[in-house]
UniProtKB/TrEMBL annotation, chain A:
It comes from Goodfellowiella coeruleoviolacea. The keyword Oxidoreductase applies. The keyword Oxidoreductase applies. This is Xanthine dehydrogenase YagS FAD-binding subunit. Residues 1-222 form the FAD-binding PCMH-type domain. The lineage of its organism: Bacteria, Bacillati, Actinomycetota, Actinomycetes, Pseudonocardiales. Keywords: Oxidoreductase. PROSITE patterns: FAD_PCMH (PS51387). InterPro entries: CO_DH_flav_C, CO_DH_flav_C_dom_sf, Diverse_Substr_Oxidored, FAD-bd_PCMH, FAD-bd_PCMH-like_sf, FAD-bd_PCMH_sub1, FAD-bd_PCMH_sub2, Mopterin_DH_FAD-bd. GO terms for molecular function: FAD binding; oxidoreductase activity.
TrEMBL record, chain B:
GO terms for molecular function: iron ion binding; oxidoreductase activity. SMART domains: Ald_Xan_dh_C (SM01008). This is Xanthine dehydrogenase, molybdenum binding subunit apoprotein. It comes from the Bacteria. It holds the Pfam family MoCoBD_2.
Length: 339, 693
């Protein structure tokens, strides 16, 4: 671990300035990912600006029926919020399926969005990785790829984004609010994370020193149903092989609205717009769901160890849509990671 | 030996004597001992798998405030013996595997040591490495013996003819993955020299073995080395023999003239403290039309390291499990540029019984027999290998009792016949076994103290297994006094020597010595001793060892659910019944059994050290990526035992229970998964992709 300067920020502008003025400064939230990286040498910042005391820990209603989630709201607190449980079950379920109870107690909303890939080569400084050290090569491409991308990858990087929460937010059309050196802006969640392309070192569109202050959830009609399903290699405390966040609205047996996002398949939460197009206006049948899944996954490019992700993603999406459209009421988030 | 020690305190489910200290955080583990003037070591590890260190630039590291020394092969003190290449740390510039220790930083804090270790610049002359285990390698060789001293190959009768003539035949290959022990407490050592005397606080399964192993390596007399270890946070074999960190800490403490602490990181554990070799097991069986085996053949291919041989005895359980007139077992090794393999819970039996018990399930189906009935039909009257009678063999009783408890009777054997809400449900069974052995070399001293209590002393170990409690129970019965009248001291070489806690031999070995010492004490001092009276004893030879085959047995039953659309697999129920002689403490025994079974479940579904052949290292080297069963993976889990009286194994009648729980679990789960889905998974782990089409 490199020595670093530690600062505790008391307001947003101060935090932004403290990071913006040094190229090697970073924000410290819950630290559940960053502190690991400090120990492993994956990142070597010269300054840590602790933002956990900033007043960004509220969940508040927005005019028009939406909800604003402060960037410092802990994952466990957010999952337990009555408004999230009742109106955004997909988000509560996604949060509860992530990490472990202990980690969720520390992890923040903003930090969750900014967690980095768990690609084993990214996390091991003795192996090449374009994301960690641009230009050094991608060790994963011809390596162990069980957990890697099948959609949207590049020859430079085949890593996947590890967050569950972000997948639900992608399906919810959430908006990330930031405060940076150049002022404030609102970034749609689906545009917040990047595909790797030739710059895999950049996970998001954030500028240096730009701080996430909140995530806004749009209002949802009462008729909407949503769910999150995560498939992984053990029953809890594992990253998704494939996950699906889905919201649907039905009218007379037809799907009037659908929003779908996949986790575990790409460098970012993968909003499945091709699948949504197939679903909108179609009858809620197994055949429709199958067609929707195929439409999204037709362009999948599996690697040596992860061809199974394609049928797995297809079957998981079909299963989630089947359950959602057979239900009569809203789903409740599960308390625990039970099978 | 005329009968077993009568049980009075033995057999009671007493709470752990060390439980309160552990749950309140006052039990002291190796790295926690307060030692004045302590310094901290962080190793530098090789980033190539084979070659030579050509240059080490330590200038940047040495320039850091707080760095006391940077050790390299060029400046490290010389060891007295480099006979064990695993322990010969910093004695040459050769690199034999990726992750090997090639340097070390000693500093005033662990953080500075770690930072400085990252600043050490190493140059290499790299050679091509070879880490690929394949059954068709031309350089496979037969070791002289397999762990610990079994013949490498055995052959009885005429296997090829028997197979050719068999009415029912099987020829399949089963593989187990590369596994790493991951005890909760990582390996840790504090080494302090006082002149020529060395004190080691170490997390170990045997303080005596540590002392006797490292003393000649360091060139000191064993009596000048003291090893202390009252508590261990799990070992599973990985702390059974000293590994490189122990010698490194002692060497560094010598070099800097101050006490040195070395706590191995989780990532470093994947290179430095042993592991279980992957195994490739070709199994051939032949049976007649009635389901009686005529031939059993097991050919195993596995790996060892180029610098030090460890030959897992994978085919050994096939030598005694089932009757068949024609039998053959072989072990072949590939010596690779990989870290040194070693003991992991039930070496041999654990991987070997996955292959054998899966093959038996396949044979039973091929013969149209229930798998329990098939096993009963092939139950040997005597040990098929030696011809000796079994001191006791209650496999059939375990199978019957397990079947009754599990509800096996109404099972429809048809695969893929049961569906519940999108999940395919199946059940399976497999047998367990583990040798009932003892290790010589333990002594026990009993002293009558001023408080009129009996002090029982021996350098035994408690890995979390219950020794602190169970050995005291044995002492109480051996002395004919109450449990509360006995004080036990273990885990320190200042006490009489004790054998290593390995091979499920601890209680049988140390307990025999306790009994011998108690008899000596009573012979000498009678029932009313005086303060200071003292007697010692050791483990007497057992004349029955040469006359009987001695093994524990068990039967494990699993219910498995596989989601039809995603292949997700869950073990909804696991039930084991064991015949392991007398149970000293039902509470800690149950913990041993279900702990072993959980580890077996973990092996079945999750564990796999993934090797990247290009680099030669395990890429998933942390607990986020190397999956061990989590609480949510373990649903209903039951362990039972039958009342088994074995007058031959030792005067206590115990067989050892630390390892048998992991044996057969993976096969029971794999067999249940086959019953659920119709898919036979012969390569562990059983992951969801194997059920997806």
């Amino acid at each position: 671990m490199n020595p670093f300067e530690y600062r505790r920020a008391t307001d947003v502008a101060e935090a932004v300035a403290a990071v913006a003025e040094r190229p090697d400064a970073v924000f410290l939230g819950g630290g559940t990912n960053l502190v690991d990286h400090l120990k492993l040498g994956v990142t070597r910042p010269g300054r840590l600006v602790d933002i956990t005391r900033l007043p960004l820990d509220r969940v508040e209603p927005l005019p028009g029926g939406g909800v604003r989630v402060g960037a410092n709201v802990r994952n466990s607190d957010l999952a337990a919020e009555p408004v999230i449980r009742s109106r955004y079950p997909v988000l509560a379920q996604a949060l509860l399926s992530g990490a472990s109870g202990q980690l969720r107690n520390l992890a923040t909303t903003g930090g969750n969005l900014l967690q980095r890939t768990r690609c084993v080569y990214f996390q091991d400084i003795t192996t090449p990785c374009n994301k960690r050290m641009p230009g050094s090569g991608c060790a994963a491409l011809d390596g162990y790829t069980r957990h890697h991308a099948v959609l949207g990858a590049s020859p430079q990087c085949v890593a996947v984004h590890p967050s569950d929460m972000a997948v639900a937010l992608a399906a919810l059309d959430a908006v990330v609010r930031t405060h940076g050196p150049a002022g404030q802006r609102a970034i749609p969640l689906v545009e917040f994370h990047r595909l790797p392309g030739a710059q895999p070192e950049r996970d998001t569109v954030l500028d240096h020193g730009e701080l996430i202050t909140a995530v806004d959830l749009p209002a949802v009609p009462a008729t909407r149903r949503s769910a999150y399903r995560k498939v992984r290699d053990r029953a809890s405390y594992a990253f998704a092989l494939v996950s699906v966040a889905a919201e649907v609205e039905l009218r007379d047996g037809e799907i009037s609205q659908a929003r779908i996002a996949f986790g575990g398949l790409a460098h970012k939460p993968w909003r499945a717009q091709r699948a949504e197009q197939v679903l909108r206006g179609a009858p809620a049948t197994a055949a429709t769901f199958q067609r929707a899944a195929e439409a999204e996954l037709v362009g999948a490019q599996p690697l040596a160890d992860n061809a199974f992700k394609v049928p797995l993603a297809r079957n998981t999406l079909v299963s989630v849509l089947t359950e959602l459209t057979e239900l009569t009421g809203a789903t409740e988030p599960t308390q625990e990671d039970t099978p | 030996m005329t009968g077993l020690l009568p049980a009075r305190v033995i057999g009671q489910p007493l709470e752990r004597a060390d439980g309160m200290a552990k749950v309140t955080g006052t039990a002291t583990y190796a790295a926690e001992h307060p030692v004045p003037g302590l310094t901290h070591l962080h190793p530098v590890q090789a980033t190539i798998a084979r070659g030579r260190v050509s240059a080490v630039d330590t200038a940047q590291a040495e320039a850091l405030d707080g760095v006391i020394a940077v050790l390299t092969p060029a400046n490290a003190p010389r060891l007295a013996s480099t006979e064990d290449p695993e322990l010969a740390v910093l004695q040459s510039d050769e690199v034999a595997f990726r992750g090997q220790v090639i340097g070390a930083v000693v500093a005033t804090t662990p953080e500075i040591a770690r930072h400085a270790a990252g600043l050490v610049q190493v140059s290499y002359v790299e050679q091509p490495h070879d880490v690929a285990l394949r059954p068709d390698r031309a350089d496979l060789y037969a070791p002289d013996k397999v762990n610990p001293a079994f013949p490498t190959d055995t052959e009885q009768g005429d296997v090829p003819s028997a197979l050719a003539d068999a009415a029912v035949r099987l020829d399949q290959t089963y593989t187990t993955a590369w596994y790493h022990n991951n005890p909760m407490e990582p390996h840790a050592t504090i080494a302090s020299w006082d002149g020529g005397d060395l004190t080691l606080h170490d997390s170990t399964q045997g303080v005596t073995a540590v002392r006797d192993t490292v003393a000649p390596v360091l060139g000191v007399a064993p009596e000048r080395v003291r090893v202390i270890c009252p508590h261990v946070g799990g070992g599973f074999g990985s702390k059974g023999q000293p590994h490189v960190h122990l010698v490194l800490a002692a060497l560094a403490a010598k070099a800097v003239g101050r006490p040195v602490r070395l706590v191995v990181t989780r990532q470093q554990m994947f290179a430095l403290v042993g592991y279980r070799t992957p195994t490739i097991q070709r199994i051939r069986m032949g049976a007649d039309r009635t389901g009686r085996l005529t031939a059993i053949s097991v050919d195993v291919v596995e790996q060892t390291s180029r610098i030090k041989e460890f030959a897992e005895q994978t085919a050994v359980p096939a030598r005694m499990m089932y009757a068949a007139p024609h039998r053959r077992t072989t072990h072949r090794l590939a010596a690779l540029d990989v870290p040194v393999p070693s003991w992991m819970r039930a070496p041999g039996e654990c991987p070997g019984m996955f292959g054998l018990e899966t093959a038996v399930d396949e044979m039973a189906a091929a013969c149209g027999l229930d798998p329990i009935e098939f096993r009963v039909r092939n139950e040997p009257e005597r040990d098929p290998e030696t011809g000796r009678p079994f001191s006791s063999r209650n496999l059939v009783a375990c199978l019957r009792e397990g079947a009754r408890r599990f509800g096996w009777a109404h099972r429809d054997p048809t695969p893929r016949a049961r569906r519940e809400a999108g999940w395919l449900v199946g059940t399976g069974v497999a047998a367990s076994t583990y040798p009932a052995g003892r290790i010589a070399g333990s002594s026990v001293t009993i002293r009558f103290g001023p408080d009129r209590r009996y002090q029982v002393e021996t350098a035994a170990a408690d890995l979390g297994t219950g020794t602190w409690t169970a050995l005291r129970q044995i002492a109480a019965d051996a002395l004919g006094v109450d449990y509360a009248e006995v004080d036990l001291r273990i885990g320190d070489t200042a006490l009489p020597p004790a054998s290593v806690a390995g091979g499920s031999t601890g209680i049988a070995s140390w307990g025999s010595a306790v009994l011998d010492a108690a008899e000596a004490f009573r012979d000498k001092f009678g029932a009313n001793p005086s303060e200071g009276d003292e007697a010692s004893g050791g483990m007497p030879d057992n004349p029955h060892t040469e006359r009987y085959a001695m093994h524990a047995f068990g039967a494990q039953f699993a219910e498995v659910r596989v989601r039809e659309d995603t292949g997700e697999i869950r073990v909804s129920r696991l039930l084991g019944v064991f015949a392991a002689g007398r149970i000293v403490n039902p509470r800690t025994a149950r913990s041993q059994f279900i702990g072993g079974m959980t580890m077996g479940l973990s092996m079945a579904l999750h564990e796999q050290s993934v090797l990247d052949q290009r680099f030669g290292h395990i890429v998933n080297h942390d607990l986020a990526e190397y999956h061990i069963a989590a609480n949510a993976d373990v649903a209903e889990l039951e362990a039972h035992w039958i009342d088994e009286h074995d007058p031959y194994v030792n005067p206590l009648g115990t067989k050892g229970i630390g390892e048998i729980g992991i044996v057969g679990t993976a096969a029971a789960i794999s067999n249940a998964a086959h019953h659920a889905t119709g898919v036979r998974v012969r390569d562990l782990p059983i992951t969801l992709d194997k059920f997806l089409s």
